[in-house]
Design goal:
Length: about 375
């Protein structure tokens, strides 16, 4: 008995998916060589996606071959498992990228879903209810296919929840749109589920991962290499958006007093360490109130999404408290003495240069007060 599916339905899309994975590896080899958890997850995603595309081709090629019935069963089992692994690795990638902490319930929820999905695949080996392979070696979906798909999508929904929980964390979300990952997978799943014999899922993961790499590259353009904060280019972009949309915002500028002295006495390596510590203290002080960026040298700016005096004063108070705590407890040979100024951004009537000049004047006055 011949198979009801045609390998040509899979060959084109899966080959494109495999080529896309190879191109992503070559173009991002520097990123993949980093020994971070995020880079390791990216490698796992790419490897899983490549093997998924290759397995899909094999599954279509041997479908209907009774002499390879066990291989048909194994390959399709791996395809279901790889779909789960792609969704799960995406969740882990988001967690690492946003440096998010999961609650106990979230951790247990993910563990339960992993056990259920893997348990379903194991049970399907003995009692086919997700898919079956008949005596002619022909693959067929069963009722459990939709149950497995629902649990798989539960992981993607969890990734959406994680994403939006970190929406206001530090502004990085502006350059990491989740739709670039979600839409290709959703469209491919719907089409492949509705029209049996069409193969799009494996290739859709490659497209989704390509979107993630593109977002990472965009984000890198707006990042300061030393501190990991946003840079001046990001400030220009944000101020443009504020002016265009008429959003109310305020800027808080922090400049270190005697930073040049730190460089002269202890060297630039220690000076860089002091800048990184300053970035950390500022980031802790701001939380979800706004975006933190390194403006130039030892100057940092916080764009606060508010013009309420209470919000601004609370942020400045938190900054002073964190710097004072560091200076009391530090074992470093230097102290961090910030001069802090602020200015409200008049989006409808004020240009970028005028706003920045006002901030610079404000922090200059703060430095003068500290020397008195």
């Amino acid at each position: 008995m011949e198979s009801t599916v045609d390998i040509r339905m899979a060959l084109g899309s899966d080959l494109i998916g495999m080529i896309l994975v190879v191109v992503l590896i070559i173009g991002n080899i520097w990123r993949l060589r980093l020994k971070t958890k995020e880079s390791k997850v990216l490698i796992a995603m790419l490897a899983t996606c490549f093997s998924c595309c290759l397995s899909d081709i094999v599954a279509f090629a041997i479908d209907g071959d009774a002499s390879h019935r066990d291989i048909v069963y194994f390959v399709n089992t791996w395809l279901f498992a790889s779909n789960f692994l792609c969704a799960y690795s995406w969740f882990i990638f988001l967690k690492e990228h946003f440096n998010a902490e999961l609650s106990a319930s979230e951790k247990w929820g993910m563990r339960i879903m992993k056990v259920i999905l893997l348990g379903m695949l194991f049970a399907n080996l003995y009692l086919p209810f997700i898919f079956s392979v008949n005596e002619f070696g022909i693959y067929s979906r069963e009722f459990g296919y939709w149950i497995y798909l629902a649990f798989n999508y539960a992981i993607i929904v969890n990734s959406l929840v994680l994403y939006y929980k970190n929406y206001r964390k530090d502004g990085s979300i502006k350059f990491f749109p989740i739709w670039m990952y979600i839409i290709p997978i959703v469209v491919a799943t719907v089409v492949q589920s509705m029209y049996y014999g069409i193969s799009l899922m494996s290739a859709s993961f490659a497209v989704a991962i390509a979107g993630a790499f593109n977002s990472l590259q965009n984000e890198r353009v707006f990042r300061d290499h030393l501190t990991g904060l946003f840079n001046r280019a990001f400030l220009d972009y944000v101020l443009f958006l504020y002016s265009r949309n008429g959003r109310k915002a305020s800027g808080i500028m922090i400049s270190l007093c005697d930073f040049q002295k730190i460089n002269e006495e202890y060297g630039h390596a220690v000076g860089d360490k002091a800048l990184c510590k300053t970035a950390e203290l500022i980031h802790e002080s701001v939380g979800r109130w706004g975006s933190v960026l390194r403006y130039a040298g030892d100057e940092f700016i916080i764009m606060v999404d508010s013009q309420y005096d209470m919000h601004i004063s609370n942020c400045i108070e938190k900054l002073n408290m964190n710097f004072d705590k560091f200076n009391r407890e530090t074992t470093e040979p230097y102290k961090l003495r910030p001069a802090i100024g602020f200015k409200k951004h008049e989006s409808n009537s004020e240009g970028i240069d005028s706003f920045l000049n006002g901030l610079a004047a404000s922090v200059k006055e703060a430095k003068l007060r500290r020397t008195l």
